[in-house]
C-alpha cells in the first residue's frame, strides 16, 4: 500500500470513530454554547473544552517527543489577515446558529437521517469552494492582501518566549479543571467520554498525515480533523473521482457520515427529518453558505480551528475562535437572534 | 491580363476550395491536421524540430486537469512508442507556454536511462498549455500538449517563507540491485529555492535569480541522464526517472546551481 493510500484509509478510520462518537454523545460546540447561554446546562460545552485540552496535550506531546513537527500545519502561517480570520470566524459562528449545527455536526445528523443537513452541507461545500477557488476567490484574495499582517510569532509559545510545554500544560490543565469542576459533567459519561475520544482523534490525525504520510519525495500535507475545505473537496470528489486522488480530508468526511449512520442504526436513533417550511429551509441554506465562506476566511471551522488549530497553539486560531464565539452569541443571545430559532 | 473582377472570383474560389479542404481535414488528412499542433507557435520548439513533422502518438504528458497550487504541479512525461532497433529516445523538452520563461526543463537520456518516463513538479502561473517535445537518437521527433487550469491557491496565506538552504540535503532513492536490462526507478530531491529572478522580496527589491541549472547522473563516469532545469521547475526540485545499467555501477548524482555551487550524492547498484 502506498503512503497516500495508507493516509486515506487512516482518514476513513478516524472519520468513522468521529462520526460514531459524535452521534452517540451529541458532541457539538453550538449545542454547548446554546445550552450554556440559555438553560445554564454546560455539560456539552465542558465536553468541547475537554476535547480541546486532550487535542492540545496530545498534539504538543507528539511534537515534544519529536514524533512529528507541527510547523507545516496550515494554522501556523507566517502572516495572516487581521480582518479575514476573525470576520470569517464570526460568519461561521452565526451561520452555525442559522443552520443549527456546524459542518461536522451536519455530517453526523445527515448520517442519522436528517435531510436538512444535506441541504446545509451542499450549500456549505459550494460556498467554501467558491471562496477558495471560484467566483468569490478574487474578492478573498483582495481582502486578505489588503489586511495582511506579519505575525510577531507563529504560535503562543513563540510570542511569550517560553517553551511549548508551558502554555500547553497551563491551558490544557485549566480547560480540564474547568470541565471536571461540574458534578453534572462528571456524572455524564456520555459527555466526558465523547470529549475524550474526539479530542484524541486530533493527534491521531496529525500522526496519520505526518508519520504515515511521511515520504521524502512526495510528502502528504500535514492535516488533521477539519471540515470546511474537506466538505467542498468531498463534493468535488463525488463529481470528479476518476481524475482526482482521494485525500485525507475527503476520506474523513466519508468516514464521519458512515460512522454516524452505523451508530444511529445501532442506537435505533435513525429517523428521516425534513424542513418544516420554506423559511426554515432558507435559514439552513443561508447558514450553510455563511459557514462555507466564513470557514475558509477563518482557515477552519469549530473543529478545524477549535480543536486542530488550537492544538498547535497558533496565534490566528485565537482570533478565529473569538470570532466563532462572537458570531454564535449574535445568533443565540445577541441582536441578530432570529425569532423562529429552534433549539437543538 | 485577366479582368480584376475575374481575379477576385478566382481568389474567392481558391478560398472556397481551401475551406473545403479544411473541413475535410479532420477526417481525411488527420495526420497533417494533428501535426499542426500548438508547438508550431513556439519558437524554441521550432528549433528543436528542425523542420521535421513530429509524430503525435507515443509521447504522453500527465498533469492534473485542474490544479489549485500552481507552485508545484505534478507533471509526468512518458514515451511508449517503439523505435527502430538500435535507436533510443535521447531528448525530452518541456515547455509551459504561458509562463514568463516557457522552458521548463530538457532531459538528455542515454540508452542506459532505460524507460523514458520522467516525473517532476513544475510552476505554472496561469491556466495554459504544457508542451513536450522528444527526439530520438536518430532524429525522429514526437510532440504532445496538455491543457492545465490553475485556480487561485487554496492555501493562500503562505507568506514570504524563508527559502530552504540551497543545495542542502540531497535525497536519492535507488534500489541496491537490478536485473540487467530491467529499468529501475530512481527518485531524487534536493533543497533549493529555485528563485526565479521575477519575485519581489519583503522590502520590494527584486530577488536575484538563483536556480539549479543542471542535474547529472553518471554510471561509472558515463552520463546516463542529465536535466537542464529552468525557472519553471518548482522549489526543491524533484525528479523521478529510470536507469537500466548493464553492469555493476557506481552512480553519481550531481546538482549544479547558477552560482557555481554544486552538491553530490554517490551510490552503487549491483546488476545480476
Automatic annotation (TrEMBL), chain B:
Residues 175-267 form the Sulphur oxidation protein SoxZ domain. Pfam families: SoxY, SoxZ. Transmembrane segments: none annotated. Keywords: Signal. Residues 54-155 form the Ig-like SoxY domain. It comes from the Bacteria. Gene3D superfamilies: Immunoglobulins, SoxY domain. Residues 1-35 form the signal peptide. NCBIfam families: SoxZ_true. This is Thiosulfate oxidation carrier complex protein SoxZ. The gene is soxZ.
Amino acid at each position: 500500500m502506498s503512503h497516500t493510500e495508507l493516509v486515506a484509509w487512516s482518514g476513513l478510520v478516524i472519520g468513522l470513530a468521529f462520526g460514531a462518537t459524535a452521534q452517540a454523545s451529541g458532541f457539538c460546540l453550538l449545542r454547548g454554547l446554546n445550552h450554556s447561554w440559555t438553560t445554564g446546562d454546560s455539560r456539552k460545552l465542558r465536553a468541547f473544552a475537554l476535547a480541546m485540552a486532550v487535542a492540545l496535550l496530545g498534539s504538543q506531546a507528539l511534537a515534544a517527543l519529536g514524533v512529528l513537527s507541527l510547523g507545516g500545519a496550515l494554522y501556523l502561517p507566517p502572516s495572516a489577515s487581521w480582518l479575514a480570520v476573525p470576520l470569517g470566524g464570526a460568519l461561521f459562528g452565526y451561520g452555525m446558529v442559522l443552520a443549527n449545527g456546524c459542518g461536522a455536526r451536519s455530517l453526523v445528523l445527515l448520517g442519522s437521517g436528517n435531510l436538512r443537513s444535506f441541504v446545509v452541507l451542499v450549500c456549505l461545500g459550494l460556498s467554501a469552494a467558491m471562496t477558495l477557488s471560484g467566483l468569490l476567490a478574487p474578492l478573498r484574495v483582495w481582502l486578505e492582501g489588503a489586511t495582511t499582517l506579519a505575525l510577531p510569532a507563529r504560535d503562543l509559545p513563540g510570542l511569550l518566549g517560553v517553551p511549548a510545554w508551558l502554555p500547553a500544560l497551563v491551558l490544557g490543565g485549566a480547560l480540564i479543571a474547568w470541565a471536571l469542576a461540574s458534578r453534572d459533567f462528571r456524572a455524564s459519561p456520555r459527555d466526558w467520554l465523547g470529549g475524550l475520544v474526539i479530542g484524541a482523534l486530533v493527534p491521531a490525525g496529525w500522526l496519520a498525515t505526518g508519520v504515515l504520510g511521511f515520504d521524502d519525495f512526495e510528502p502528504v500535507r500535514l492535516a488533521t480533523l477539519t471540515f470546511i475545505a474537506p466538505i467542498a473537496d468531498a463534493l468535488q470528489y463525488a463529481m470528479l473521482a476518476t481524475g482526482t486522488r482521494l485525500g485525507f480530508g475527503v476520506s474523513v468526511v466519508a468516514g464521519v457520515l458512515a460512522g454516524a449512520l452505523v451508530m444511529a442504526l445501532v442506537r435505533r436513533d435513525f429517523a428521516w427529518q425534513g424542513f418544516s417550511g420554506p423559511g426554515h429551509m432558507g435559514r439552513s441554506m443561508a447558514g450553510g453558505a455563511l459557514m462555507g465562506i466564513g470557514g475558509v476566511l477563518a482557515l477552519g471551522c469549530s473543529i478545524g480551528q477549535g480543536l486542530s488549530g488550537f492544538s498547535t497553539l497558533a496565534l490566528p486560531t485565537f482570533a478565529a475562535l473569538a470570532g466563532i464565539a462572537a458570531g454564535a452569541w449574535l445568533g443565540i443571545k445577541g441582536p441578530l437572534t432570529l425569532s423562529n430559532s429552534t433549539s437543538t | 491580363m485577366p479582368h480584376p473582377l475575374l481575379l477576385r472570383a478566382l481568389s474567392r474560389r481558391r478560398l472556397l476550395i481551401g475551406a473545403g479542404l479544411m473541413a475535410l481535414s479532420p477526417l481525411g488528412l488527420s495526420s497533417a491536421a494533428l501535426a499542426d499542433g500548438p508547438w508550431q507557435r513556439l519558437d524554441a520548439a521550432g528549433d528543436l524540430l528542425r523542420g521535421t513533422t513530429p509524430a503525435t502518438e507515443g509521447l504522453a504528458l500527465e498533469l492534473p486537469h485542474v490544479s489549485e497550487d500552481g507552485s508545484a504541479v505534478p507533471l509526468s512525461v512518458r514515451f511508449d512508442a517503439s523505435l527502430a532497433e538500435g535507436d533510443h529516445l535521447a531528448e525530452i523538452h518541456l515547455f509551459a507556454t504561458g509562463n514568463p520563461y516557457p522552458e521548463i526543463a530538457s532531459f538528455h537520456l542515454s540508452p542506459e536511462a532505460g524507460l523514458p518516463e520522467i516525473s517532476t513538479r513544475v510552476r505554472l502561473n496561469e491556466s495554459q498549455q504544457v508542451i513536450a517535445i522528444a527526439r530520438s537518437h536518430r532524429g525522429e521527433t514526437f510532440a504532445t500538449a496538455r491543457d492545465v487550469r490553475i485556480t487561485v491557491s487554496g492555501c493562500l496565506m503562505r507568506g514570504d517563507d524563508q527559502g530552504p538552504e540551497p543545495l542542502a540535503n540531497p535525497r536519492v532513492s535507488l534500489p541496491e540491485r537490478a536485473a540487467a536490462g530491467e529499468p529501475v526507478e530512481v527518485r531524487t530531491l534536493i533543497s533549493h529555492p529555485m528563485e526565479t529572478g521575477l519575485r519581489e522580496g519583503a522590502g520590494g527589491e527584486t530577488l536575484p535569480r538563483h536556480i539549479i541549472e543542471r542535474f547529472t547522473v553518471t554510471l561509472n563516469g558515463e552520463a546516463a541522464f542529465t536535466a537542464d532545469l529552468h525557472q519553471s521547475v518548482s522549489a526543491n526540485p524533484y525528479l523521478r526517472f529510470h536507469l537500466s545499467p548493464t553492469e555493476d555501477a557506481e552512480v553519481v548524482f550531481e546538482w549544479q546551481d547558477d552560482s557555481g555551487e554544486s552538491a553530490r550524492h554517490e551510490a552503487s547498484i549491483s546488476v545480476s
